[in-house]
Design brief:
There is one protein chain. The protein has about 500 residues and is an alpha+beta fold. The chain has twelve helices and 15 strands. The strands form five sheets. A five-stranded antiparallel β-sheet has the order 7-13-10-15-8. A four-stranded antiparallel β-sheet has the order 9-14-11-12. Strands 1-6 form a two-stranded parallel sheet. A hairpin with a 7-residue loop joins strand 2 (about 140-145) and strand 3 (about 150-155).
Length: about 500
């Protein structure tokens, strides 16, 4: 429990359905949604600070700032949440004054967090909502009509309907989540949100090159650039951050729409909590002035522009808030640690698999491709054990993109036999998230699809030692983390309008 701070952020996964913190959050969101989009304290304006949907024509210097894939990812989002929290608190105070509610519920209100890793997995079948399900207040279309009400009779601003968009225009009609999200006992499996690897890092940010890759907690050093998905993800931004965005899907799976889903703010509150937890283990933030003195643009509860720097949001208990727990939901050590994700492919191409021109990924079952030529793959695998020719093997899935968010991350496997594509098993390579790689984001991230690279050197050695990597073609399997139901023969329209995640090619290269 945080000590000596004015506001304590609590875990929504441990709250009763309509805990006062969630009730008043819903009331404030509803009021903010009623404000004109030009009001800096409105729901629309605050969402546009993260990203601007194509339906919004207004412009502002604060819009579309969100840095991803660079070392400002954590301090920028921390400042973003802090000013948003103040706006919500002031809105709660406004509502309570109008309704003569005492004591003032805004006095101790703090933004909750969603600790999706709180419940660790068991071998028992999942028959009820876990901490990886959306908190109950976000799943219900209705909410109580008063702080102590028990009947759900009022429209709930925290709830978004599920929808499978049929086009970019249809996607942006109304905020929504991917089909199945609201009713899921777990939005994602534990392996996709386990923050153990991130929390275990000792370096905040590193410079990645073709020759070296140093895993880091935060994302790649970007100096003074507020990058958008152009550099390397840190472990925390990769898992759980990107995977949760992709798992909730809908507008949460889009950079331009994410902050318009009320669960966004609880997701990022948990990401911020994990940063505080990492710092509590005597890890250190960067001390470079280009990181400390970077200026961001936000608006406060009075609608006044504020331009704080990173150095104003440091520490375990930054500014005036702390967290209920810095130890719960910090993850558990995986049985097999997957390969590190690296920002770039290697230099010498050994084998490829082309999409001709693009390979669509199945939302229902594994998509398998073979790397060719097979003899080059076999030679490369064998050379891993030759001490005279040290080299790293880099597996890259090129030009990953989708039309609309698919509502699930994907798992990548190397030579996994049919029926053994388990992310806790030895063949698991890593994740592909389509957050930031969707065509619906338009010009916000106009650099095309992502390249996702993994250093599979140690994995190949481990598979060889265990006799699990025989000579012959290398097969890459890409599997939806949460397979979608297969549409029946009568659902031809559903098949035709389903998301179309895809990639351009796959390569195996050396460094």
């Amino acid at each position: 429990m945080a000590n000596g701070v004015a506001f304590v952020r609590r875990d929504a996964s441990n709250m009763r359905d309509w805990d006062p913190a969630l009730y008043w959050y819903a009331r404030a969101v509803g009021r903010m949604q009623q404000r004109p989009g030009t009001d800096p304290t409105s729901w629309v304006f605050q969402g546009c600070i993260h990203g601007v949907p194509p339906t919004i024509t207004e412009t502002n210097e604060a819009f579309s700032q969100c840095p991803h894939g660079g070392w400002f990812f954590l301090p920028w989002h921390r400042g973003y949440l802090w000013y948003f929290e103040r706006i919500v608190r002031a809105t709660i105070k406004e509502i309570a004054a109008e309704e003569n509610i005492t004591p003032d519920p805004s006095t101790g209100w703090a933004l909750p967090y969603w600790d999706y890793a709180l419940d660790t997995p068991t071998s028992d079948p999942i028959e009820d909502f876990t901490s990886r399900a959306l908190p109950a207040a976000f799943r219900s279309p209705k909410m109580p009509d008063s702080p102590n009400g028990t009947k759900l009779t009022v429209d709930n601003p925290l709830f978004l309907p599920e929808k499978q968009a049929t086009s970019t225009a249809d996607f942006w009609q109304t905020p929504h989540r991917s089909p199945g999200t609201n009713s899921a006992f777990e939005v994602l499996p534990y392996t996709d949100i386990n923050p153990f690897t991130a929390i275990s890092q000792t370096v905040f940010a590193a410079t990645h090159t073709r020759q070296t890759d140093q895993p880091s907690f935060g994302s790649e050093i970007s100096y003074t650039s507020m990058d958008h998905f152009r550099r390397g993800f840190g472990e925390l931004e990769n898992v759980p951050h990107n995977q949760v965005h992709g798992g909730v899907g809908g507008w949460m799976g889009s950079v331009a729409g994410a902050a318009r889903d009320p669960i966004f703010w609880l997701h990022h509150s948990n990401i911020d909590r994990l940063w505080s937890s990492w710092l509590s283990k005597d890890n250190l933030n960067p001390d470079h002035t280009s990181w400390l003195d970077q200026t961001f643009i936000f608006f406060d509860e009075n609608g006044q522009i504020q331009k704080p720097t990173s150095r104003e949001f440091l520490g375990i208990d930054p500014r005036d808030y702390g967290y209920e727990s810095l130890t719960d939901g910090n993850g558990t050590r995986p049985v097999v640690v997957p390969p590190a994700q690296v920002p770039e492919a290697g230099e010498r191409v050994l084998a490829t698999a082309a999409g001709n021109p693009r390979q669509l990924l199945s939302l229902h079952e594994p998509t398998e491709v073979s790397l060719e030529p097979a003899d080059a793959v076999s030679r490369a695998m064998r050379s891993m054990t030759a001490p005279s020719t040290p080299q790293n093997l880099i597996l890259t899935v090129h030009n990953v993109r989708t039309d609309v968010p698919p509502g699930t991350p994907f798992h990548v496997f190397l030579n996994g036999p049919s029926g053994e594509l388990d992310p806790a098993g030895p063949y698991f390579v890593g994740w592909i998230s389509f957050f930031g790689a969707a065509d619906v984001d338009g010009a916000l991230h106009d650099h095309g699809g992502h390249d996702v690279s993994f250093d599979v050197t140690e994995q190949v050695l481990r598979l060889q030692e265990q006799g699990l990597l025989p000579d012959g073609p290398a097969t890459i399997s890409i599997v939806p983390s949460v397979p979608q139901p297969v549409a029946g023969a009568a659902d031809a329209a559903a098949k035709a309008t389903a998301p179309q995640p895809s990639f351009g090619s796959i390569s195996l290269t050396t460094v």
